[in-house]
Amino acid sequence: MNVMTIYVNQTPQEITGGGSLENVISLLGLPHQSCVFAIKNQVVPRSVWASTLLCEGDEISLFQAIAGG
C-alpha cells in the first residue's frame, strides 16, 4: 500500500493508499456533522465527498459551524 501525506488544517496526516474525502474523514475520525470541508480552498459539497479523490499533498480545511447570537 502507498502512504501519502495530506494536510488537515495545516497538520500533516499520513494515510495509507489514496481514497475519497469521505473515507479519509472516517479514517481520521474527523467531525462531519455541521462541517464544511475545502480542498485547496475550494469547498467540496457533501454530495460529492465519496467521489472526491485525494492526492499526495492535498490541503484540506475543516470548518465547523458555530452557533451564536
UniProtKB/TrEMBL annotation:
Transmembrane segments: none annotated. It comes from the Bacteria. It holds the Pfam family ThiS. CDD domains: Ubl_ThiS. This is Thiamine biosynthesis protein ThiS.
